[in-house]
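Case study B.
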Amino acid sequence: MARMAMLIDASRCMACRGCQVACKQWNDLAGWSYSKTTNRGSYENPRRLSPQTWTRIKFIEYEGPERFQWLFLKEGCMHCGQAACVEVCPTGALKYGPLGIVTFQQELCNGCGYCSQFCPFHIPQLDVANKLTGQAKSSKCTFCQDRTTNELTPACVKTCPAAALFWGERHEMIAKGQERVAVLQTKRGFPNANLYGETELGGLGRLYVLTERPAHYGLPEHPASPVLSRLWQDLIQPLAEASFGVGVLVSIAAFFIARRNIRMEQVE
Amino acid sequence: MNFFLNGPEAGIQIRWIPRYSSLERFLHWGHAFTFLPLTLTGMVLFMPLLAPLARGEAGQFIRLIHRASAVLFVAVPIIYALLEPRRLLQTLRDLKFGKDDLDWVKGAFPYYLLGRHVAMPPQSRFNTGEKLNVVILVTGTVLFAITGAVMWFGRGLIPVELFQACVIIHDLTMIATVNMFIIHFYLAVVHPMMWQSLISMRYGYVSESYAREHHAKWFYGEERAKEMYAAEKAAQAKKEEMV
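Model:
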């Protein structure tokens, strides 16, 4: 099946936060326990992603060389083509789904929190019930895996009134994004407009049309999986298995050789 | 026959020499019996066969055992250090490696595997292998404790790079110590020649003859042991010449 993707046109987003509400509604996420509203001199709310907030609009006040801009970024899981979280997840709770999205099966999760520590975008959020015993569960945007695998669009896309969110086959979304970037650059006066996520980390499932450089949105210009996330599966696991196997086999062999050669009556 | 000729004092007489204090044995077995559950629970992340145990509720429970064992694993050496600090320092000071240790490693293969009765360089209370085991286990315990505590209490508070480094160091330490454990278990428990070593870790004593043979520096003192080793080697060389 063709890889699917979400296209987020940040130039069209008006920060109504309808997507935040639709996400909570569809995924049955609690509202207030994690995010009491406090006035911090910004309309941004809540202030960060949480185990109960899988997507949110980040408000950035950017004073560029030409003019002031209010930048809006719809945060959430990027669904990387090469996802560090999938590489480090020891339980298989995080997997590559059939649509090329990173699915999450919460009942498999044991709350180790590796995903939250290895994700280059710091997306997965750990809900720690008990710091001492480590009772915890991870959570993140799943592109509404229960909807999208049934040929529906994610809840946030469905609700967006500004037509800033799109869902479709990834190559189509890329074409659409590039088209929009060209329009922004030539006709709308955004020379720095760009498409984010086309090639990064094996291609992101979440594509952004941005009016300014990614860094101004707080996105890494060249995101990379942490080197250590590859080390785990590529080096440490095979090294452990091989060395223990060799160690035990050599011990057994050595035992039989020693038993043949050593005369017990000489042993003190 | 001996008994009738020489009376009840004859027969086989074994002089037992104290080798480990009771606290040292508490340290050894306390550490061993917390190391095992730690290894077994840690293995769920490494053995594909055990992978189902890492998932969901089972995984949460396994982590609970791992953490409870970890507390004891770190507590045992601390308790020991508080109760016998001078003996501990003495032991750590004895962990010096020299030319004799290199020769011991060279001689270990024919001696322990092929059962050749070659002259082995004299050893102090711990032989080279035992010293290596102590060095790796002590270093490993410190690394386990630091990286484990950082991952346990520091997640979310410390930079992610530090957390990632702790995961990797914890794993590499595990590989080093578990391999050391396999070798240690083989030599101390499985190997036919070393049964007295196991007995001494249980009861605290070794026989005089075992101490002479395997821990000459400890039994005779450094100088005398070296002289005897030189003499034994010379005798062996002569014997080989004659053959």
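The mean pLDDT of chain B is 88. The remaining cases will be described in the next quarterly update.
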